[in-house]
Amino acid sequence: MTGELSPIDKAKFAAAKQAASLVESGMRVGLGTGSTAAWLVRCLGELVREEGLRFRGVPTSSRTADLARDVGIEVVSLDEARWLDLTIDGADEFDGDLNLIKGGGGALLQEKIVATASDQMVVIADAAKEVERLGNFPLPVEVIPFGWQTTQALIEETLVSMDVMGRQTTLRMNGERPFFTDEGNHILDLHLGRIGNARQLAMVLNQIPGVVENGLFIDICDKVIIGYGDGRVETRDINAGTVSESQLDFVEDDNIFRDI
Ligand SMILES: O=C[C@H](O)[C@H](O)[C@H](O)COP(=O)(O)O
């Protein structure tokens, strides 16, 4: 029941539910990863089961693939879909230009490939994800395991000439062991505090041997849907330059909350 959901979950749900209404039958849709994207997948599952929505979903992680299948969404690979009408995903941070930091859940590589292969990328988020300048959230960088410490040293050396506030980097762990992505890579989290030039940093990081991809999404996101705990939803479209607001009524006995 919604009464048991925290305000932050209500905010994530509100954004996700609004975004789910963008999906039409026949579409090919990229499905993001993370707690906000999980709400989206549940909302879409409900539309599939109860309203006959028919679309093909391309998940951005094994976790999302499992959930999408569980809720009844037809799952296909990106290569089967080839090009997508829309991708909907969460973010760890977004700024006023809708540039993003992603990868807090370790799925940035598939997420960036899928979002880039889409006509439109929509981010769903609670208001706390909005920042004036990116960088407070540690920037995830996916690196191959071979020589990862050398790659880390090269990244740290590179950061010296970048416009950033902090330069500490840490290997992401999963308990006692290094975290592995779906592609079998590691994640280095870059504690930068503040990124002066995100576009330049994104390009420079990807030049370093051993770096597979970084979590800066520059000029990829078209629209952000921001949810609030009281059901308010704000949609900002960077291309159209529009901002619109709506209000979601939480339905207390909504099936979607049953298993949460
Ligand atoms: O790798 C994970 C993704 O980039 C997520 O979209 C991001 O971490 C946001 O996740 P959440 O919705 O759980 O805050």
TrEMBL record:
One family name in Pfam for this protein: Rib_5-P_isom_A
CDD domains, per the entry: RPI_A
InterPro entries assigned to the protein according to its UniProt record, in alphabetical order: NagB/RpiA_transferase-like, Ribose5P_isomerase_typA_subgr, Ribose5P_isomerase_type_A
Top-level taxonomic group: Bacteria
Any one GO molecular-function label of the UniProt entry: ribose-5-phosphate isomerase activity
Broad class of enzyme this protein falls into: isomerase
Residues bound to substrate: 33-36, 89-92, 102-105, 129
Gene3D superfamilies: 3.30.70.260, 3.40.50.1360
Entry GO CC: cytosol
Active site residues per record: 111
Pathway of action: Carbohydrate degradation; pentose phosphate pathway; D-ribose 5-phosphate from D-ribulose 5-phosphate (non-oxidative stage): step 1/1
EC number per UniProt: 5.3.1.6
Swiss-Prot/TrEMBL GO biological process terms: D-ribose metabolic process; pentose-phosphate shunt, non-oxidative branch
Known role: Catalyzes the reversible conversion of ribose-5-phosphate to ribulose 5-phosphate.
PANTHER family reported in the protein's UniProt record: RIBOSE-5-PHOSPHATE ISOMERASE
Family designation: Belongs to the ribose 5-phosphate isomerase family.
Official protein name in the record: Ribose-5-phosphate isomerase A
Species of origin: Mameliella alba
Originating gene: rpiA
